Amino acid sequence: MPELPEVEVLSLQLSKRIGGLRIAEVLVRRESSLTGARQGFEETLPSKRINRILRRGKFLCLELEDGALLWFHLGMTGQLLWIPRPTAYVPHVHLVVRFEETEMELVFRDPRRFGKICLTKEPAGSFPEGVRPWGPDPYEMSDEGFLKIFRGRKGRIKNLLLNQTLMAGLGNIYADESLFRAGIDPRRRAYRLNSTKLIRLHQAICETLTEAIEKGGSSIDDFLHANGGRGFFQNFHRVYGREGEKCFSCGDLVHRIRLAGRSAHFCPQCQR
DNA sequence: TTAGCCCTGAGA
DNA sequence: TCTCAGGGCTAA
User: Fold this and answer.
1) How do the pLDDT tens digits run along chain A, 272 residues long?
2) Residues 108-127 of A near strand B (Cβ < 7 Å)?
3) Active site residues of A
């Protein structure tokens, strides 16, 4: 499931491939994947040049020459593929972007349809209209900023990390991995964590994300790079998806529990 | 704060 | 055939 590292990897790859290209045609295959009307996409986008590709939290964004922004949220199974025509045979494709300079197409594919595409004119750096205002990236905030957001809160730390209005970018995998790295039990209430522990957590989050980006993200179910390649950070997960296996640090078994409707993986020995 | 919804494919 | 996975939103 694409979280911050996966979207970052994708945006870097797409920058190289579609930065500067001019859109020739946009085909909407499933209108329900769009937040606005189909006409807006099919009529507004053609003939526009792509200035650059941005990432904000888990959103990927194409900035066009006239300032319009095309946003993609990959949900759980969303993919942005850069593939040669014809692409009509590819199942679960909801949007196709064609370009003037190449026969390659940018294809948005999303079997479970949790992903969303929106077109806005917001200034760069903000989030698309209709999306709840999200918090800053972990990278964008200082340790002090992180403390300001999380210190003293009553909720369980894992649930707070998943709350995108507080901080954007973390999903289930990287929340679990970061908490392991910081040695914090996911069930702990934030107000029970002192500043040292919270700062350690912020650092653990940044380290985990950076490492994941370097390894091309995690390809668990459906995440693929723009060229169809896979990330390999999943081979380095220390707790996520390792229920019943030995903890790499202490040899105790990794546990899995349910927290706020999501699974949480942790080592009760190493995380307190 | 939690349950339910959206949705499909994988695995039991 | 049933259960489960999960991001983000909404309702209770």
Assistant:
1) 789 999 999 999 999 999 999 999 999 999 889 988 888 899 999 999 999 999 988 999 999 999 889 999 999 889 999 998 887 788 899 999 999 999 999 999 999 899 999 898 876 566 676 666 788 899 989 999 999 999 999 889 999 999 998 999 999 999 999 999 999 999 999 999 999 999 999 999 999 999 999 998 888 766 778 888 888 888 899 999 899 999 999 999 999 998 888 899 999 999 99
2) 111-114
3) 2-3, 58, 262
**Which nucleotide shows the minimum CA-to-C1' distance to residue A74?**
C7
Determine the nucleotide nearest to A155 by Cα–C1' distance: B1
Measured CA angle at A111 (ends A108, A114), to 5 deg: 80
Residue nearest C7 (alpha carbon to C1'):
A75
Q: Which bases of chain B are contacted by protein, using any atom under 7 A from a CB?
A: 1-9
Name the pTM for this structure: 0.93
